[in-house]
Amino acid sequence: MTNTLYLSTRGQEKEIKASYAIVKGIASDGGLYVPAQIPKMDQTLEDMLTMSYQDVAYHVMKHFFSDFTECELKDCISKAYDSKFDTEVIAPVVQQKEYSFLELFHGPTIAFKDMALSILPYLLTTAAKKQKIEEEIVILAATSGDTGKAALAGFADVEGTKIIVFYPKGGVSKIQELQMVTQKGDNTCVVGIDGNFDDAQTGVKEMFQDEALKEELKKKGYVFSSANSINIGRLVPQVAYYFYGYLQMVKNGSVKLGDKINVAVPTGNFGNILAAYYAKEMGCPIGKLLCASNDNKVLYDFFSTGTYNRKREFMLTCSPSMDILVSSNLERLLFALAQGQGDTVKNHMESLSVNGEYTVDKDQMKGAKDFIGYFATEKETYKAIHDLHLQTGYIMDTHTAVGYVAAQKLEEDGEAGKAKTLIVSTASPYKFPGSVMGAIDERYSDYKEMDLLVELKSLSGVDIPGAVKGLDEEQVLHDILCGAKEMKACVKEILA
Ligand SMILES: *Cc1c(COP(=O)(O)O)cnc(C)c1O
């Protein structure tokens, strides 16, 4: 079997084992860990047709996590993808008009982050054992909504771990806040901060770099780790569902075995679509990769011009989980485009932090020819939800709608060819009922979010997921608040 070793995108570290990369999260030179070579699948698509989600996940992940034993990896997989998902299929494909939707929202927090965050705690504790780390792992996370809850749900009651999540008080939706503050589990902690998401993120980053704090906590038996999407342990599990989605399209007759499909991916930090690129490189028959952005269209501009420019106004949209101007995981694609030249990537990243932009040269951009950037305005997003509901009765969430608009634009551009497009559906409409129902009918605009759940149920015929049902009646278990500058003191007190 493949022996995959990792290196840093900025060139300073190499021959790193997967378990080390997972525990460490980010390389010492500030780069991200990437496999020295993207492995190839050793199973034929035909052999994979009859596999369960768990089996597909195993055959994909074994190549990337080659220092895990079969037993260890299978154990992680079976603990992650179990009855906390509301369907045995885990990631079903549903067909609407000429499009297929890969629904990645059947996990405990009804957003696609569950696909990786339900397995990361097990990968991390297994990796820590292999690396002979004896301290208790403390996950620190800043969230603008979805990541926090998915990480809390993933790490709750996982032995050997604690998790502390910071969110901007007043800066997340009512449902997102309720989801977090009602989180059960003795090892979980949720803190509202007096500041915005950037303040929370900055505070967490500072703690990761605070050597004195780390030393002090080590004496108490704690070590920090991160659950954000730059961790290779979050990226790799996402590769599996592209194979699984493809295989379902073969089984339901949408495509013939071996025919290519396009994928449309609603994108923020570039993690999900990078997983699609890895799947393609591994041998999944993917043609075009549609990188779908909202009004924060940095990536659209990048794929159109080769210049990444974050100097622009930050827009608040109805797809908040994609409101982002610095897409961290793009660094991994830059590394591939630069054919593994760490220096080139390092220069781009320095330029980004000093000048707010960088440009990839024309020849290197040729390596990205299968990516097409699209973006959807707010109006287009709402209209897409409205129209698809009218035509089919199917209700998609605001993030998925951005992907849907991209698929439609590909069609209009005459680029789709004969290939079918698989739209990656990243959240349940129940997670954003205000925007979704407002798109369908203006009369819902002044409803409270929790009151819209029943309306959404009667319109869609889909049961209210356990993740949000009765959420406003659940006990609030976390009410710590702190100033943006007091996060460190707060962590010390929690761990005292
Ligand atoms: C995080 C998130 C995204 C963006 O995914 P990336 O991997 O950051 O590109 C899209 N939709 C939803 C609902 C999300 O929670």
Report on the structure:
With 496 residues, this protein is α/β, with parallel strands linked by helices. Helix content is 43%, strand content 16%. The protein is built from 21 helices and 15 strands. The chain has helices spanning 18-24, 45-48, 53-64, 70-80, 114-117, 120-130, 146-155, 174-181, 197-209, 211-219, 232-251, 271-282, 298-305, 330-337, 342-355, 362-365, 378-392, 398-412, 433-440, 449-460, 487-495, and strands at residues 6-8, 33-35, 93-96, 99-103, 136-142, 161-168, 188-194, 222-226, 261-266, 286-293, 307-309, 357-359, 371-375, 420-425, 480-483. Helix 7 links the parallel strand 5 and strand 6 (161-168). Pyridoxal-5'-phosphate (PLP) is lined by residues 111-113, 146, 229, 266-272, 321-322, 399, 426-427. Pyridoxal-5'-phosphate is lined by residues 111-113, 146, 229, 266-272, 321-322, 399, 426-427.
